Amino acid sequence: MTEAELREQMATLAHSMFMRGYSSGGAGNISCRLPDGGFLVTPTNSSFGTLDPATLSKLNAAGEHIAGARPSKESVMHLNFYRQRPDIGGVVHLHSPALTALSCMPGLNAENCLPPITPYYVMRVGKLPLVPYFRPGHPGLAEAIGALATTHNAMLLANHGPVIGGGGLLEAVFNAEELEDTARLYITLLPHGMVTLTGEQVAELERTFKKT
């Protein structure tokens, strides 16, 4: 896709997520990798519901702001994701209700915050590790994400929300939607108990679809 097409796609997908309550006010941020090696990032204090394709923040390959509005303070965590994963073309950070609620729950398995409820969670996300709490924009948060990005497509930030990558921005959004749905199912099922996929079933999915 051209830069112009990616700008339009980012605004369209962000508006779709806003309308479904995945981001409210100025919360959350998304980004994509450009054909020239640079990046587009949502501007600071921008709303997913009203993004202007023409004013999106543009960074060069080194992560320097070169055009558009000032980038989100959390753009550095997006850049660390990209630097560890050349196969990643889009990154989504949301404050979506179910995943944010999950990030505040006690007793989470830090290696994988969600059990394998459905094959689609395993296929699209694999595992969801927990990143310890850092304030938004803290350098330690970006470092923790970079360390996990080498082997994971998504992470859950404690008391904050998810960060999810994909081969392109559309895939990253699809992965984020699947992850939010899985968290909603998990919270719904908690009072009743649940049947999860077996280890053998998960292994078959991992062999077949090669998701980390």
Automatic annotation (TrEMBL):
Catalytic activity: 3-dehydro-4-O-phospho-D-erythronate + H(+) = dihydroxyacetone phosphate + CO2; 3-dehydro-4-O-phospho-L-erythronate + H(+) = dihydroxyacetone phosphate + CO2
Signal peptide: none
Top-level taxonomic group: Bacteria
UniProt GO cellular component terms: cytosol
Keyword list, A-Z: Carbohydrate metabolism, Lyase, Metal-binding, Zinc
Domain Class II aldolase/adducin N-terminal: residue ranges: 8-187
SMART domains, sorted: Aldolase_II (SM01007)
Keyword set includes Glycoprotein: no
EC category name: lyase
Enzyme Commission number(s) of this protein: 4.1.1.104
Cofactor(s) needed: Zn(2+)
Any single GO BP term: pentose catabolic process
InterPro entries for this protein: Aldolase_class_II_sugar_metab, Aldolase_II/adducin_N, Aldolase_II/adducin_N_sf, OtnC
Pfam family, one: Aldolase_II
Family: Belongs to the aldolase class II family. AraD/FucA subfamily.
PANTHER family xref list: 3-OXO-TETRONATE 4-PHOSPHATE DECARBOXYLASE-RELATED, FUCULOSE PHOSPHATE ALDOLASE
NCBIfam families: OxoTetrPhDc (NF043034), PRK08130.1 (NF006000)
Function: Catalyzes the decarboxylation of 3-oxo-tetronate 4-phosphate to dihydroxyacetone phosphate (DHAP) and CO(2).
Protein name: 3-oxo-tetronate 4-phosphate decarboxylase
Organism: Acerihabitans arboris
